[in-house]
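Hi R.,

Here's the input for the adenosine-5'-diphosphate complex you asked about:
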Amino acid sequence: MVAAEGMPFVKTGGLADVIGALPKALQALGVDVRVMMPKHRTVKEQYEDALETLATTTLQLGWRQKYLGVQTLRKDGVEYYFIDNEDYFMGPVYRGGDAENEQYLYFCKAVCEALALIDFTPDVLHLNDWHTGMVPMLLKTQYGGRQNGGRQDAAPTRNSYEARTLFTIHNIQFQGKMDFRTMKDMLSIPDYYYTPEYVEADGCANMMKAALVFSDRISTVSPNYAHEIMNAYFGLGMEGILSARRQDVSGILNGLDEVAFDPAHDPALAAPYDAGDLRGKLVCKRDLCRQFGLGGAGGGQSPHAPIVAMVSRLTAQKGFDLVRYALEELLTTEDVRFVLLGSGDRPYVDFFNYIAGKYPGRAGVYIGYDEALAHRVYAGADFFLMPSQFEPCGLAQMIAQRYGTLPIVRETGGLVDTVAPYNRFTGEGTGFGFATFNAGDMLAAVRLALSVYRDKPAMRKLRRNAMALDNSFARSAEQYLALFRAMR
Ligand code: ADP
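And here is the predicted structure with adenosine-5'-diphosphate in place:
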C-alpha cells in the first residue's frame, strides 16, 4: 500500500486515516500488507532510533542525482517502508506548486526503485491519490511490468514489477497537474506519452491521468461517487478516461474507527449509551444545551426541542451556501435548536457569528477545531445536517449514525450509499435526504425530520436503525480483498 501520508506517522486529511486503518483490517483477514510512504519530518523526529536502513542508493531524475534511502519499521504488527530523502520530505508534507510536483515525482520513481530493494514481493500494489500516480506507468514502461491486458493467468508474481496495480481516488480535486517541462525534466519518458492517450489532460501533464490510464484497476471511496465521477460535473476532466474504463472502476466505502467512535465507551461524553438504552443520550443532550447556552422549548435547560447540528470544515463543498440561505427561516419558523462546530472560510465564519449573536439560546456556534467537542455534538444532537455539494465518501454522517443522531444529507456521493432516507410509508430509514442542491429542498428535508421527531416511536426506530449499521473497516477490508483477488 503506497501513499503520501498515513496514521500514526503523519496526517493532513482523511487519506491518512484510511492508510492507518486498512492495513490492520486486511491483516486480520490474513493478508500480508506492507505500507510504503515518504519519511516525513514527524517520522524522523519520533522514530529515528527505531528505523532500520535497508538500502541507500542514488536515483537519476533527469539531470539530477538524488539520494534514496529505504528504511523500515514494524509498528502495531504492520511493516512500514519509508522513502528517505531529506531534501524532499523534511519540509511541509505538501509544498504546493511545482515544488510539490517534484516531491511526488521523486516519490513515484523512488517507490519503483525501492521495490527491488526490499525483501518482499507484492502481488498487488495499492496506490493512493495522485502522489503515487506515476508508479503504474513507470512500472509498465521502464521496469518491465505487465502491460494492460497482458498475462491474466493466476501464475504467481515473479518480481515486484509484475505486481498488479490498483489506484484509489480519495479526492479527484487534486490531480498533480503540471507543465510538460516539469515532468520531462524529472522522468525520462518518451515524448509520445505526452498526449491525451497517456499523461496529458487539458494541455498539462497530469499524474492522476497517468494513473487512470496505466493502473490495472481503479477504485474510489464509495460506489455512488464511482458513478458520479464519470460525468464532467464531478469528474473534473477525468470523466473521459473513467467512463472509457468503467469496467475496471469500483467503489468501496471507507470505514469508521469503531473504537474511537463508540457512544458506549467514549470518554468525551457526559454519559455513555447504546442502542438498547438511550437514556445516556438525553444526558448528553442536556450537556450540549448547557455548553452552547441553548434553551429548550419550555425555556431553561429543558431539552424538548430538537437539535440540528453540523460539525464540518466551513467550505463551499459542504453545502454552506444552502445553510446561509435557509438557516434564519428555519430558526424563525420552527421550534428547533441549531449547533455548529467548524472552522474554515471567512464568509461562513462571519455568517455563523452573526447567527450566534442574533439568536442566542436558539443557535450555538463554536468556531475552531475540537475533537472532544465534536464527539459531544454528535452525541447530544438529534439531527446532523450535511448538505454537501459533492462528497467522495464522508465520515461525519457515519459517525452521527453511530451516535444515534439522524443525518439529513444531500443525496450525493457516499452520502447516498450510507444514508437510507426515511420512508414514511414503511417507517424504514437511517436518516433524511434531498436530491437537488437547493435551499428550499434542504428546508423541506429538515421539516420532514422535525415532524418525525414529534412521533416518538418512529424516531426511536430510525435511531435504532442508524445505530445498527455496520460501517466498520472490517467490512471495507473484505471488499478490498475481494478486489485484490479478482486482479490476480
Ligand atoms: P472531510 O474529510 O471532507 O472534511 P468527512 O466527513 O469525511 O469530511 O470527515 C470530517 C471529519 O472531521 C469528521 O470526523 C468530523 O467530525 C471532523 N471535523 C470536521 N470539522 C471539525 C471541527 N471543527 N472540529 C472537530 N472535528 C471536526
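One thing worth noting: Confidence is low (pLDDT under 50) at residues 149-154, 297-302.

Cheers,
M.
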